[in-house]
């Protein structure tokens, strides 16, 4: 195996030769990570504010995760759901103990967790009400995954168009616009799906009154409220899940990204009564709930769901916002710095409108990894335990990138 690996010269050009061109990754290739730092093939160091798109909640190669993976890898990797396994049962128990939920369904990703949530909502409406109750309402600029169902429910047409007829009975209203939702929702609505803070759509925070009103409208119309917490969940906003800070409880919640800290896993959480509608044979996942993924996720949960880490997230929010605001004022590049916990968005000022990717690329040149959320927002989703020294160093590098772009 080692000889075969050495025989292939792994370069960025080789990516273009062998990969489907749906991604356009950075020119450098990361090869090693530790904590909040990453090194590429040339041993250049980067501060990681991207976190694998809000996935690496404990940074790279956290000892608790490495230990859990190594230990489980010598016991059981995969069984299929013809059998259950101890890590899956333990993880499900810890998730239900820590949330509103009674039942858990495991999948491989956020899109799969959302697919399960949407199918469950439709099945619940059919069995509890009638076949006309099938409308799903979601929000413009929302993002719920890339399967055909989830990308249709997501409110970004650029991701769903060009693939033929879409699943029906899916409609969208603007985020934070309760009057628009009030005008559309009815007894034909089976579910309203929303992010409790929009991530891909530009790091948009909801009004507290809006979230409560959505819950009330769902109750009035016998519709389920689905919270997509794929990006906001597992400590990202300073509580285990964002709903716990909003005073609103969903009927179904989806989780992924930080749930595995970098190992692929997704979960759908719901109540016993709603879960009863996914009877044997109605839905499934070959790898969902595999022992390896669940063992790693359990280790992540044990670290994240502590006062020390969750309170530390709120502290990191302040460090990031204060320093980014100072950079924005100095160079006139940001209209607003917003977000919650370790999910921060810096919206560009009019002068730099549409140039978020320029800042991302300049950041890479100066040794810092950031993300974008649309063409106008630079997104920061670092590890929940990133040291203050790494935040300072990373933002010093980012300021050099800003100075370069700002000219």
Write up this protein.
The protein has 407 residues and is an alpha/beta fold. The protein folds into two domains: 2-61 and 307-406, Aspartate Aminotransferase, domain 1 (Alpha-Beta Complex); 75-304, Type I PLP-dependent aspartate aminotransferase-like (Major domain) (Aspartate Aminotransferase, domain 2, 3-Layer(aba) Sandwich), CATH 3.40.640.10. It contains 15 helices and 15 strands. The protein has helices at residues 2-7, 12-18, 51-54, 63-73, 86-98, 110-128, 148-153, 157-160, 178-184, 208-220, 272-275, 291-304, 307-331, 356-365, 388-406, and strands at residues 30-34, 37-40, 45-48, 103-107, 135-139, 170-173, 189-194, 224-228, 252-255, 266-270, 334-340, 343-348, 368-369, 371-372, 377-380. The strands form three sheets. The protein has a seven-stranded mixed β-sheet with strand order 4-10-9-8-7-5-6, sandwiched between helices. Strand 1 and strand 2 form a beta hairpin. Helix 13 (307-331) runs parallel beside helix 15. The longest helix has 25 residues, at 307-331. 47% of the residues are buried.
Q: Give me the number of helical elements.
A: 15
Order of strands, main sheet, comes to 4-10-9-8-7-5-6
Along the chain, the helix and strand elements come as HHEEEHHHEHEHHEHEHEEEHHHEEHEEEH
Low-confidence stretches: none
Number of strands: 15
How does the overall form come out from the CA principal axes?
globular
Structural class: alpha/beta
CATH superfamily of the largest domain: Type I PLP-dependent aspartate aminotransferase-like (Major domain)
How much of the polypeptide forms β-strand, as a percent range? 15-25%
CATH classification class of the largest domain: Alpha Beta
Q: Tell me about the biggest sheet? A: 7 strands, mixed
CATH topology heading of the largest domain:
Aspartate Aminotransferase, domain 2
Helix content: 25-40%
The number of domains is 2
CA-CA gap between termini: 49 Å
CATH architecture of the largest domain: 3-Layer(aba) Sandwich
Radius of gyration: 21 Å
Oligomer: single chain
Arithmetic mean of pLDDT: 96
EC number: 2.6.1.11
Subunit structure: Homodimer.
Keywords: Amino-acid biosynthesis, Aminotransferase, Arginine biosynthesis, Cytoplasm, Pyridoxal phosphate, Transferase
Main location: cytoplasm
């Amino acid at each position: 195996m080692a000889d075969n690996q050495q025989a292939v010269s792994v370069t960025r050009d080789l990516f273009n030769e062998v990969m489907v061109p749906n991604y356009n990754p950075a020119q450098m290739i990361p090869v090693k990570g530790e904590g909040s730092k990453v090194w590429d093939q040339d041993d250049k160091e980067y501060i990681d504010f991207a976190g694998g798109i809000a996935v690496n909640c404990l940074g790279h190669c956290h000892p608790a995760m490495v230990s859990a993976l190594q230990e489980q890898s010598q016991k059981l990797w995969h069984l299929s759901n013809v059998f259950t396994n101890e890590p899956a049962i333990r993880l499900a128990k810890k998730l239900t103990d820590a949330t509103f939920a009674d039942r858990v369904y495991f999948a491989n990703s956020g899109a799969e967790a959302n697919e399960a949530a949407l199918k469950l909502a439709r099945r619940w409406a059919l069995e509890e009400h009638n076949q006309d109750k099938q409308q799903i309402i979601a929000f413009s600029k929302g993002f719920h995954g890339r399967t055909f169902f989830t990308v249709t429910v997501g409110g970004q047409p650029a991701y769903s168009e060009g693939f033929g007829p879409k699943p029906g009975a899916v409609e969208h209203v603007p985020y934070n616009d309760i009057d628009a939702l009030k005008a559309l929702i009815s007894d034909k609505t089976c579910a309203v799906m929303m992010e409790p803070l929009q991530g891909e759509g530009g790091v948009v925070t909801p009004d507290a009154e809006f979230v409560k009103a959505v819950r009330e409208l769902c109750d009035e119309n016998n519709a389920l409220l689905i919270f997509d917490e794929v990006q906001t969940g597992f400590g990202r906003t300073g509580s285990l899940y964002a709903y716990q800070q909003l005073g609103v409880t969903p009927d179904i919640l989806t989780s992924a990204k930080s749930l595995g800290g970098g190992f692929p896993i997704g979960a759908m959480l719901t109540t016993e009564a709603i879960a009863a509608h996914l009877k044997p044979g109605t839905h499934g996942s070959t790898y969902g709930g595999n022992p390896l993924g669940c063992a790693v996720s359990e280790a992540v949960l044990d670290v994240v769901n502590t006062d020390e880490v969750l309170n530390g997230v709120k502290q990191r929010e302040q460090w990031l916002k204060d320093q980014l605001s100072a950079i924005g004022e100095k160079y006139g590049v940001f209209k607003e710095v917003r977000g919650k916990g370790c999910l921060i968005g810096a919206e560009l000022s009019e002068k730099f409108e549409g140039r978020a990717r320029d800042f991302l690329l300049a950041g890479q040149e100066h040794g810092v990894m950031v993300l974008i959320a649309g063409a106008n927002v630079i997104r920061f989703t670092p590890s929940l335990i990133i040291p203050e020294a790494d935040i300072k160093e990373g933002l010093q590098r980012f300021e050099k990138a800003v100075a370069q772009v700002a000219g």
